[in-house]
């Protein structure tokens, strides 16, 4: 709005209807090795996503980081055209190597265009992070119009290491965001 002097006269837009409860899961067993999984779409910017075997998994090779170089992959089958309105919980098993501080970012409710990204994500930080305060911690962050916003950080009771598999659960329940990570 350009003029906020008479807010009482403005009807707010209707909130989108809550998505119906549903549960989705994949182990990528129906996807071709060496290819991006079928029914998934790159979001914000293209990147190198491929299904690997032994164990069957999705791999993302990061080619650049930060700011307007945000990359994501969304599962088109989820919700309506890949969109869920309301509460959500995602989980997975992840690992990373050759990183400088942040082992992974695991996101929900992503929208916007490259450079004006919106969404929430959880990340795991190791000892190589530039800030000692973030070492061995799990953080909840968001992107608003492309800018990164820090929401919370909690130390983890284990040493965060590359090439280690971690379970990740990230949940939005109403206005509350929760995350849990463990080896």
Overall pLDDT: 84
Task: Give the helix proportion (percent range).
Answer: under 10%
**Spatial separation of the terminal alpha carbons:** 47 Å
Number of helices: 0
- What is the structural class? mainly beta
Q: What is the strand tally?
A: 11
Summarize the structure in words.
With 183 residues, the chain is mainly β. It has strands at residues 40-43, 48-52, 57-61, 72-75, 88-94, 102-111, 118-125, 137-144, 147-155, 166-173, 176-182.
Topology:
Blueprint (H helix, E strand, L loop, with lengths): L39 E4 L4 E5 L4 E5 L10 E4 L12 E7 L7 E10 L6 E8 L11 E8 L2 E9 L10 E8 L2 E7 L1
Antiparallel strand pairs: 1-4, 2-3, 5-10, 6-7, 7-8, 8-9, 10-11
State the main characteristics.
183 residues, mainly beta, four-stranded antiparallel sheet, three-stranded antiparallel sheet, 11 strands, 0% helix, globular
In short:
The chain is mostly beta strands. Helices cover 0% and strands 41% of the residues.
């Amino acid at each position: 709005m350009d003029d906020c002097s008479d807010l009482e006269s403005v009807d707010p837009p209707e909130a989108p209807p809550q998505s119906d409860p549903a549960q989705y899961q994949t182990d990528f067993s129906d996807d071709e090795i060496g290819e991006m999984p079928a029914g998934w779409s790159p979001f914000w910017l293209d990147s190198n996503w491929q299904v690997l075997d032994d164990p069957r998994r999705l791999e993302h090779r990061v080619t650049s980081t930060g700011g307007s170089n945000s990359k994501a992959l969304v599962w088109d089958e989820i919700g309506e055209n890949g969109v869920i309105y309301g509460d959500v919980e995602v989980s997975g098993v992840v690992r990373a190597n050759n990183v400088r501080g942040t082992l992974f970012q695991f996101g929900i409710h992503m929208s916007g265009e490259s450079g004006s990204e919106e969404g929430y994500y959880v990340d795991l930080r190791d000892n190589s992070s530039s800030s000692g305060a973030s070492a061995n911690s799990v953080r909840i962050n968001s992107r608003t119009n492309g800018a990164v916003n820090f929401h919370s950080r909690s130390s983890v009771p284990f040493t965060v290491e590359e090439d280690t598999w971690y379970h990740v659960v990230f949940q939005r329940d109403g206005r509350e965001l929760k995350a849990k990570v463990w080896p």
